[in-house]
Design goal:
With 82 residues, the protein is mainly alpha-helical. The chain is built from 7 helices and no strands. Helix 1 crosses helix 2 and helix 1 packs across helix 6.
Length: 82
């Protein structure tokens, strides 16, 4: 797994408005710019919060990413606890 690359991608989406806008338009294209496994890429593109958490993304990166994507706190907590 490439937890560093996965976390870096989400951090960039969280913090960089240009990358965030591009990600919202074409998440797969943006994800191709990072060294991810096919499983990680699929989790990012599909916004599979549980998988992203299991892949090792820290909550301080993952939660802002979910807020950007309008995931409620109860839904976020359910996803990371499953």
């Amino acid at each position: 797994m490439t937890t560093y690359s996965l976390s870096k991608l989400l951090r960039e989406v969280n913090r960089n408005p240009d990358i965030r806008a591009r990600f919202m338009q074409d998440a797969k294209a943006v994800s191709m710019e990072f060294d991810l496994t096919p499983e990680e890429r699929e989790a990012v593109v599909s916004r599979d919060i549980g998988a992203l958490y299991r892949f090792g993304v820290h909550g301080l990166i993952l939660r802002p990413f979910t807020i950007i994507h309008n995931v409620s706190e109860p839904d976020y907590l359910t996803a990371i606890r499953s």
